[in-house]
Write a structure and sequence with these properties.
30% strand, Deoxyribonuclease I, Chain A, alpha+beta, 22% helix
Length: 318
C-alpha cells in the first residue's frame, strides 16, 4: 500500500473514532453551497490548469485544545456527527470549485485535512498543512493533483515593520513545488493578518515580504508556473495589495472581473474582495484572460463559510 493511500485509510479510521492519533503527524448555522459564479466571459469549459483559493472558515476537529470551547469562544468543538457533516459540506464546495489545485485557509489540524482528503479521494493525492503549532490555530492547507516535489515554509522569516522592529507572517506562507503533467508548478498559500483586531502595518509587512519571496522564486524558476493565492485580508488599491503588485511582477487575475462583482466577503452589508490569486509574470506559464471567477453560495459565502472562492485557469509552461 502506498504512503498516500495509507494516509487516506488512516483518515477514515480517524473520523470514525474521533481521535487524532497519528493524524497529528504531518506525514503526508449552515450556508447553502448552491453556487453562483461571476465570470468575465461564459465560454464553457476552459483549457489549462485551474487553481483556486478558498477560506473554509474555522474548520475545527472534535478535540478542544484550548480548554474553552464554550458558546462564544473562538475554538469550536463539534460532535463527531457535526464534524462529519462539516467535512462533507466543505468537500461538496470544493467539488463545485472543481480546481486541480486548491489553496485553503482556516484548517485546524491534520485530522481535518486528512478527513477532507478522504472525502475527496482519489482526486487530490497531494495534501499538505501549514501547521504553525499554536493551540487551536486555523492554518493554511493545500489539496493538489500532481506530485509533490518540494515544500518550503517561510513563517520563520523576520519581517521588518515600516515603523521599525520586526514581525512575522500571521500564518504560514506555505510554498509547494508540484509536478503537473510533466511541468513544474509552484504555489504559495497565504493568510495575512485579519482585520479583526486590525494591524495594517503587519499586513503591509507580510505583503512586502510575500512580493519579495514570490518574485525571487519566479526569477529562480523561469520555466515554472508560479502562483500566489489566499485570504490576503485587504482590497485592491490598499497599501498591502499595492506592495504585492509593485513593479507589475505579480498580476491579480481577478482584475478583469467587472468592478463590484469580484467581492468574496460581505462586510457591513458591502461586498469586498479579500481573497486573491496572483500570477508571477516573469516565470513560465500564463493566465487565461477572462477565466477568473468568484464562486459563491446563495448567502454570499460558499460551503458554510463567510468567504466565497476565487478560481482561474492558467496555461502551463511549454
Amino acid at each position: 500500500m502506498t504512503l498516500r493511500l495509507e494516509l487516506i485509510v488512516l483518515a477514515v479510521a480517524t473520523v470514525l473514532v474521533a481521535c487524532r492519533g497519528a493524524a497529528d503527524d504531518p506525514v503526508g448555522t449552515t450556508t447553502s453551497t448552491t453556487t453562483t459564479t461571476t465570470t468575465a466571459e461564459d465560454a464553457g469549459p476552459l483549457p489549462g490548469l485551474r487553481i483556486a483559493t478558498f477560506n473554509v472558515r474555522r474548520y475545527f476537529d472534535t478535540v478542544c485544545d484550548s480548554g474553552d470551547c464554550s458558546y462564544g469562544a473562538y475554538e469550536e468543538q463539534p460532535t463527531q456527527a457535526q464534524f462529519e457533516a462539516r467535512t462533507a459540506q466543505i468537500a461538496e464546495a470544493i467539488e463545485r470549485i472543481d480546481a486541480s489545485i486548491v489553496l485553503l485557509q482556516e484548517v485546524e489540524t491534520w485530522t481535518c485535512l486528512l478527513s477532507l482528503a478522504s472525502a475527496l479521494y482519489p482526486r487530490y493525492p497531494t495534501f499538505r498543512l501549514g501547521e504553525i503549532g499554536g493551540v487551536a490555530t486555523v492554518d493554511v492547507a493545500v489539496l493538489a493533483e500532481g506530485e509533490l516535489v518540494d515544500e518550503i515554509r517561510h513563517r520563520q522569516v523576520p519581517l521588518p515593520l515600516p515603523s521599525g522592529g520586526f514581525t512575522s507572517f500571521a500564518r504560514e506562507l506555505l510554498e509547494l513545488h508540484l509536478e503537473v503533467d510533466g511541468q513544474r508548478v509552484v504555489v504559495f498559500d497565504a493568510h495575512f493578518k485579519s482585520k479583526s483586531g486590525d494591524d495594517p502595518e503587519r499586513r503591509l509587512a507580510e505583503a512586502t515580504a510575500a512580493h519579495q519571496i514570490v518574485t525571487a522564486r519566479a526569477a529562480q524558476l523561469p520555466d515554472a508556473l508560479v502562483v500566489l493565492g489566499g485570504d490576503l485580508n485587504d482590497v485592491p488599491g490598499s497599501p498591502p495589495l499595492d506592495a504585492i503588485e509593485q513593479g507589475g511582477l505579480l498580476h491579480r487575475v481577478a482584475a478583469d472581473i467587472p468592478d463590484g462583482l469580484d467581492h468574496t466577503f460581505i462586510f457591513d452589508g458591502q461586498g469586498v474582495a479579500l481573497d486573491h490569486l496572483y500570477l508571477a509574470v516573469a516565470a513560465g506559464g500564463s493566465y487565461i484572460a477572462g477565466s477568473a471567477e468568484v464562486i459563491r453560495g446563495s448567502a454570499g459565502g460558499l460551503g458554510g463559510s463567510d468567504h466565497a472562492a476565487v478560481a482561474a485557469h492558467f496555461e502551463l509552461p511549454e
